[in-house]
Amino acid sequence: MRLDPSYNPQVATTDASGMPKLPRSQLAYARTAPAFTRAMASANLSGALAPEGGTAPWSTAVRSGQTLTGIVREQMASRGVNISNNEAMRLAQTVARSNNIANPNMIHPGQPLNLESLNFSLQQAQAVNQAIAANQAATAADTLNANTPMGSTALAGTAQVQLLTRSDRSGNVVLEKTIDRAIEKGFIPAQDKQAVMNKIVQLSQQHRFAPDDFARLTLMESDGMNPKATNNRCHGIIQFCDGPDRGAASAGFGANPKAILGHSVLQQLDMVGKYFDDTGLKSFGPVGLDDLYLTVLTPAARNETRPNAALNIPGQQAAYLHVNRDMRAPITRNSILAGLHQNANERLGREVAQRPSMQAARLSAYAAQAAVTQAL
Predict the structure, then answer these.
(1) Strands (DSSP E) found in the chain
(2) Torsion angle, CA of 42/43/46/51, rounded to 10 degrees?
(3) CA distance 202 to 216
(4) Domain spans, the chain
(5) Rounded CA gap, 322 and 334, in Å?
(6) C-alpha distances in angstroms, 217 versus 96, 168, 210, 289, 293?
(7) At what angle do helices 119-145 and 85-98 cross, to 10 degrees?
(8) CA dihedral in degrees (22, 356, 340, 40; nearest 10)?
(9) CB 240, CB 257: distance < 8 Å
(10) In this predicted structure, what is the pLDDT of residue 321?
(11) Sign (positive/negative) of CA torsion 171, 174, 175, 181?
(12) Would you say 115 and 59 are in contact if contact means Cβ atoms under 8 Å apart?
């Protein structure tokens, strides 16, 4: 929700993860190179790019009485992912575009549908679900270990002590290192470390996003959970902005946004939860890093789902968010992903953000697309 960047990083020839710098030509974001589609279709959950042809085709035929939205929900559920009505409608539009269907409400029995355009959303959702399941399994293990007559009271006492162990088991490495860095910088009292971790994991389960992605978001917005970060219009760990229907008003500080700066990270996380509720984040189904960040920056921009389409985001933004870090170029979903990962790499260390992930595969495909486009 920040209107002005707090810093202006230098443009490098390559990004922090070693990917090639993207070309500034309009072709880089006006159309998708074939290599990008092929790479994304063959990406697997480990983050590696599978050999071309290694992914089984995904298609179906319309049955009598079916709708495109219903087909999308059914097909995703058959692969273990339950999605909301809003997410089903969004993905139905994606399927319609990929099958050259002018009106998604007009399909007929026997019509063949290619569903491979759902692959990225499926894999991203599975990755989020795995992170949530790991956290829930760790919490359940802690419950079984709380064998004292005090019952729930004992669990509450041990939960804080064992929280870092849960974090290690669930693999939230970026979040843990971000919190450690925030403690070193004085943003978070050391005694609040476990409570902050616990609150973020709780929010991630309620709204179905990856805890590490929230850490990447705060690294961009507030240098990693600085509760006093401000640019005079936006304040706090996710930059709650002033004005009607903006983050400060949602958090209950519409009349005095700067008062947010007097609240701790833990208190601001409660405001974050209220803001995510008000912006309907959980209704988008399993939430990827791009949708999570757009919810904070400009929620209306979530309606544009094409990865390389220019997003309608008003105001000046940090160079990291633009294609090729060029502030004359547009902001796209892919440039947001690249920028947030690059920023996390530089602030935390490259070894943290290079863990295998579906988003890493998408960024690798993004770099491949740029190379192909530049050669055309």
Answers:
(1) 59-61, 112-114, 234-235, 240-241
(2) 40
(3) 17
(4) 27-55+172-375, 59-114
(5) 9
(6) 31, 20, 11, 8, 6
(7) 150
(8) 50
(9) yes
(10) 96
(11) positive
(12) yes
Just give the CATH number of 59-114: 3.10.350.10
> What are the angstrom distances between the C-alpha of 213 and each of 144, 209, 233, 288, 341?
29, 7, 24, 8, 9
What was the pLDDT predicted at 5?
40
How far apart, in Å, are the Cα atoms of 251 and each of 121, 225, 239?
A: 30, 17, 11
Which tokens in the block code for residue 216? 């990447």
Q: Is 99 exposed, middle or buried (0-12, 13-18, 19+ CB in 10 A)?
A: middle
> Which residues in the chain come in under a pLDDT of 50?
2-54, 148-169, 353-354, 370-376
125 vs 187: CA distance, rounded Å? 32
Whether residue 45 contacts residue 81, with contact meaning beta carbons closer than 8 Å, is answered with no
Sorted by sequence, the CB contacts under 8 Å of residue 340 that are 6+ apart come out as 216, 217, 219, 220, 289, 293, 320
Q: What's at 233, amino acid-wise?
A: R
Virtual CA dihedral for 359, 132, 287, 83, nearest 10 degrees?
A: 120
According to DSSP, the residues that pair with 62 across neighbouring strands are: none
Question: Max Cα separation, the chain?
Answer: 71
Amino acid at 248: A
Q: Is 281 exposed, middle or buried (0-12, 13-18, 19+ CB in 10 A)?
A: buried
What is the Cα–Cα distance from 218 to 174, expressed in whole angstroms?
11
| CA 283/CA 185 separation, integer angstroms | 35
Count the alpha carbons within 13 Å of 1 in the hemisphere toward its beta carbon.
29
> Half-sphere exposure of 183 toward its Cβ, with a 13 Å CA cutoff?
15
Query: Please, which residues bridge with residue 60 across strands?
Result: 113
pLDDT in tens, 209-243: 999 999 999 999 999 999 999 998 999 999 999 87
